[in-house]
Each structure stands twice: as C-alpha cells, then as structure tokens.
Design a protein that fits this description.
The chain is α+β, with helices and mostly antiparallel strands. The protein has a single domain, classed as Gamma-glutamyl cyclotransferase-like (Hypothetical upf0131 protein ytfp). A five-stranded mixed sheet has the order 2-3-1-5-4, sandwiched between helices. Strands 6-7 form a two-stranded antiparallel sheet. Strand 6 and strand 7 form a beta hairpin. Helix 1 packs antiparallel against helix 3 and helix 1 runs parallel beside helix 6. It is globular, with a radius of gyration of 18 Å.
C-alpha cells in the first residue's frame, strides 16, 4: 500500500540524514547532476543542504522542457523533460557528493514513491544524471492544461539571461511563452492514485478521501514546503 511506502520513504530518509557525516568521511566521491526548471537557482539545493563544489550553465541535447507535471494545486504545473530530437533544455550542471545525490533521490520521490526516475546521460565529456517524471501505467503522467507560477518561470528566465551560453531562441521560447498560474488559496486534490471513473460512485468517493489523506500525510512527512508555489516573481 502507498501509505506504507510513504512511511518507508520517511524512515529511510531519516537514516540517510543521520549517516551522512559518517558516509561522507568514508567515501567522498563526487558526481554531476543536471538541474532544470526552478532548480537552476541554487536556492532549492541550499534548502536541502546539498554541498555544491562546482556549477556551470549547460544545454541538454535532444530533450524538450515542458511544464505539464501536475503539482499540489489545481492548475499548477512543474517542469519535466521529454526526449525530442534536436531540442535543447537549459539548466545547470552541479558537482555534488554522490551521497547528497542519493539524498536528492528521496527529495524527488524516486525510491518508494516513484514520482521521478533517474536518467543518466553522457555529453560533452560529462557523465551526469537528471530527474524525469515517472510514467504511470506505462503512460507519462502529463496534463497540458497546467501552468507554472510566475516565480517558477522567473528563476529560469534569470538563469538564461545571466548565462554565457548561446541559447537557441526556440529553447527560450518554451519558457518565455508560458502563461503563468493564477494561484488560488484553497488546497485541492493532488492525486497519488489515478481516478477510476468506471468504479461505483461510492467506491470512487472513498478512494478520493484516501488520496487526500495520502496527500496530507506525505506533505507532513516532507522536509520542506514545495518550492515555486509563490506566484510573485
């Protein structure tokens, strides 16, 4: 059950946080992580207490940036990437401890929660990984109607403007053309479970309440508030 997966995720996360000083002294290996979306700003990594040894702007080849990853408010979308020949995604390469990258997996919901998956890639003499939204039932969980907040977009725009890279106009247009999300105060359903309209209405109503319980419980377990929810840049 998902409820027990959330508990297992939290327990393992606490264990990782506790063992971090010991493990880093024993095995201080570093690897590269490609961050995109709002994570082009190091604020998120600092909030998560990730040590950054080196960073530089980078264009990921043959992937396209989209903002169709559903978030915790109705209409709110987070960034995700999908393979597309010839497309490019602007982001940053961060050099970090491998153990911090393992901790990052838990922040991104890779183990147990299956919200994201790691993707490894080699490009320009760098071997690095990035996160991609996990597919659900062999289909990417995408919603073309959702939009990012103004603050979320502004972080990416600032990164592009300050970059020394020759960023293609098509890559910029993906970000600059975004209509931003008009955030409402009320919390709405953030589905962990896929709605099943073919079920009897009473059963589907129970599943909906259970899903809301999972959402609230996972939010309580998460170490910090979701980034990029403020709609003011």
């Amino acid at each position: 059950m998902l409820f027990f997966r959330i508990i297992a995720w939290k327990i393992c996360f606490i264990v990782l946080e506790t063992l971090r000083p010991i493990i880093l002294r024993m095995y201080p290996k570093k690897i590269w992580h490609f961050a995109f979306g709002a994570n082009v700003s190091p604020v998120t990594l600092k909030t998560r207490k990730m040590l950054i040894f080196s960073s530089h702007d980078f264009l990921l080849d043959d992937f396209e940036l989209c903002f169709d990853r559903p978030g915790p408010y109705k209409g709110l979308g987070f960034a995700n990437v999908y393979e597309k020949q010839g497309a490019k995604v602007y982001g940053k390469l961060y050099q970090m401890y491998w153990f911090d990258c393992l901790r990052m997996d838990f922040y991104e919901g890779v183990p147990f929660l299956r919200r994201h998956q790691r993707v490894w890639k080699s490009q320009e003499n760098h071997c690095f990984y990035f996160y991609q939204g996990s597919a659900l039932n062999n289909k990417p969980k995408r919603d073309p109607s959702v939009r990012p907040t103004a603050m979320y977009i502004e972080k990416i725009r600032q990164g592009m403007e300050n970059s020394h890279l020759d960023i293609p106009q098509a890559t910029k247009q993906v970000v600059y053309a975004q209509a931003t999300f008009d955030q409402k105060q009320q919390r709405v359903d953030f589905f962990w479970l896929e709605p099943k309209p073919h079920l009897p209405q009473r059963i589907e109503k129970i599943r909906k309440h259970y899903d809301r319980l999972l959402s609230n419980f996972s939010g309580w377990c998460y170490p910090h508030k979701p980034m990029g929810l403020n709609n003011k840049p």
